[in-house]
Amino acid sequence: MRMVAGYEGGKALAVIKYSEKVLEHFRNPKNIGMIEDADGQSTVGSPACGDQVSMFLKIREDRITDIKFLSYGCASNIATGSIITEMAKGKTLTEAKAITWKNAVDELGGLPPVKIHCSVLAIDGLRAAIQDYEEKTTGIKQERKVDEMMILDELKKVIYPKNGINIVDTNMIRYLSFEEGVITIEISIEETDLFKQNVLEEIDEHLEVLPGVRKIEIKVVEY
Amino acid sequence: MREVYLDHAATTPPFPEVLKIIQESYTNLYGNASSLHSAGQKARQALEKAREEIAKTIGAEPEEIFFTSGGTESDNLALFGTESFYPLQPVITSIIEHEAVLETVNALASKGHPARFLPVNNEGIVDLKALKALLVEKPYVVSVMLANNEIGTIQPLREIAALAHEKGALVHTDAVQALGKIAVNVQELGVDMLSASAHKFYGPKGIGFFYLRKDVKALPLFQGGGHERGLRSGTENVPDAIAMALALKISTRLFTRTHYRYERWTAQILKKCEEIGDFRLNGHPKQRVPGLLSLSFKYINGEALMELLDMNGIAVSTASACQSHSAKRGYSHVIKSLGIDETYANGTIRVSMGVENTQEEIDFFCEILKKSVKQLRNYRNDQ
Questions:
Q1: How many percent of chain A have pLDDT more than 70?
Q2: Is B322 in the active site?
Q3: CA angle A150, A153, A156 (to 5 degrees)
Q4: Chain B interface residues facing chain A, Cβ-Cβ under 8 Å?
Q5: Under an 8 A CB cutoff, do A114 and B328 touch?
């Protein structure tokens, strides 16, 4: 890997510090385990890269009556899995599907920006498990809907020219949400960065083709 | 919370004597060592005494020691400082070098020196057959680290140097992880250049030294007032140089005693790992720096294990073999080069002991390690 001045989007490296709540959910995660006769289940991520989540759902009358998860991930991954299983328990499927990554992070009292990927993966697991249940009960294969995971995967195709590594792994994406067709992204890049315009245009190109996206709001932030 | 620091391969806490001498030198030896008045000459005298002490410890002459900012600068000086005398000749290094060497070699490649990387076996030892084959290309320099920073494996430098010299190549070694831990003698090793960093042997950060054999030519990396006999301009950092010499002296004196202790603790930790099960010790079982253990646990996320240990006040470091982590902390080209099964490789932590560690701390570490691995394995999903 060639390093060039301005690596990490030209910013000083972020200090990784977890909130008390993240630490608590990592140390004593809720709903760890598996459900043998789950109504819906999923496994997302790749064990080869050390981040993988499995979700198991028990569903009665469109309501999540029990939920468990297993994780082969880092602290953020485990803590997010723990908090979203708590948030989803007792909710209807529609309500559970509406839980966003932002909701989970707010509930956790924030997460370091470097940890976006590991955390989004847990949300992806929940949605995939619900989808598994719906497909099994209706017999209809669903198109994958646009979600944070899909947006993140698209952003991983945008390469930061200064270091040849995508903008997600370069830790430039500081915030991400997708609500009512609007994608909001905060990207950390110097105003004076020669590649700023290129990067922003490329983000647009990758995201505007996603189905159901009405608007893309990119905010350039200084942290 | 109790703090147990087991990451001495990253950096070490300075000896109290080192802190004391830094303060004393800043108080009494603030003169510029290049000044001709007595305040300057007092500092010069102390600086040259530090140089002599360092030279003596590694079997060199004082004029062969140059003060630098540390390992990275010394590595750059070794490879970049000599390259212009050997245009377009290849440079050989190993695939498990520190980035300070690897990236310098990559930069040399773009200046027209073909870069050649020696493979290692699954114990992390450089392949001498490959070296012999590559030496046919007439490289100008062979740079192989003395001890690896992630797995602690000690390389057969003497054999490497003999082979390289036969073909007229210079030999450089990054000895950052070896000094203060094992006996290092440039004559015995037969190297022409050596890099060292003070903060790895309980000295201050931001200072190191470079050994350059008398008859080897090198050019400075940057221009200036011609300090350090023209090879390294910039006002001499006298207090830190003195502190580095002292730190090297103390750590070299201590290591026979600490080795015995580290071996005992190593056996204790490995026994605990046997209890835990499904683990492996990376690197060479014997040819290694005492007190540095690279441990891989099957089906464990190394980062999660590091984080869990950290929450218990224990500092170790982690390494991952996953390519997608290359821009993140923790990606390791070293662990990857050993060809370890992925289910193990991603669960790798490095434990490196130091002089201030106690039996009680190791007992505590063993207890928490077992608990943490057990806990994380309960979370896992691919049994």
A1: 91
A2: yes
A3: 155
A4: 103, 106, 299, 301-304, 307-308, 311, 320, 322, 324-329, 342-343, 346-347, 378-382
A5: yes
| Number of domains chain B contains | 2
The number of beta carbons lying within 10 Å of the beta carbon of residue B290 is 18
| Active-site pick, A4, A49, A182, A194 | A49
Q: Comparing A172 with B211, which gets the higher pLDDT?
A: B211
Say whether pLDDT at A8 is over 50: no
Q: Which of A57, A64, A99, A118 is catalytic?
A: A118
SS (H, E, C) chain A: CCCCCCCCCCCCCCCCCCCHHHHHHHHCCCCECCCCCCCEEEEEEEHHHCEEEEEEEEEECCEEEEEEEEECCCHHHHHHHHHHHHHHCCCEHHHHHCCCHHHHHHHCCCCCHHHHHHHHHHHHHHHHHHHHHHHHHHCCCCCCCCCHHHHHHHHCCCEECCCCEECCCCCCEEEEEEECCEEEEEEECCCCCCCHHHHHHHHHHHHHCCCCCCEEEEEEECC
Query: Is the pLDDT assigned to residue B78 strictly greater than 80?
Result: yes
Q: At residue B329, does pLDDT exceed 90?
A: no
B242 and B340 part of one domain: no
CB contact under 8 A, A71 and B381: yes
Q: Among A103-107, B187-191, B233-237, B366-370, where is mean pLDDT lowest?
A: A103-107
Checking if the pLDDT of B172 tops 90, the result is: yes
| Inter-chain residue contact B103 with A34, CB threshold 8 Å | no
Residues of chain A in contact with residue B329, where contact means CB-CB under 8 angstroms, are 114
Q: How confident is the model at residue A5 (pLDDT cuts 50, 70, 90)?
A: very low
Are B240 and B375 part of one and the same domain? no
Residues B176 and B206 both lie in one domain: yes
pLDDT score of B345: 87
Q: Are residues B126 and B224 in the same domain?
A: yes
What residue of A is the nearest CA neighbor of B312? A27
In which domain, by residue range, is B41 found?
16-252
pLDDT value at residue A13: 53
Q: What is the pLDDT of residues B331-373, one digit of tens each?
A: 578 888 888 888 888 899 999 999 999 999 999 999 999 999 9
| For B299, nearest residue in chain A (alpha carbons) | A72
B-chain residue closest to A9, CA distance: B327
Q: Is B371 left (phi over 0), alpha (psi -120 to 50) or beta?
A: alpha
Please indicate, yes or no, whether residues B281 and B337 belong to a single structural domain of this protein.
Answer: yes
Whole-prediction pTM:
0.84
Report the pLDDT value the prediction gives residue A58, as an integer from 0 to 100.
97
What local confidence, expressed as pLDDT, does residue A2 receive? 33
Classify B217 as helix, strand or coil: coil
> Which of the residues B309, B381, B382 would you substitute to probe the A interface, choosing the one with the greatest number of A C-beta atoms within 10 Å?
B381
ipTM of the complex: 0.76
Task: Sort out which chain B residues have CB atoms less than 8 A from A70's CB and list them.
Answer: 379-381
- Inter-chain contact A72–B320, Cβ cutoff 8 Å? no
User: Residue B381 — very low, low, confident or very high, per pLDDT cuts 50/70/90?
Assistant: low
Domains of chain A plus CATH, in order, are 18-138 (3.90.1010.10), 148-221 (3.30.300.130)
- Indicate if B208 and B268 belong to the same structural domain: no
Is A118 one of the annotated active-site residues of the chain? Answer: yes
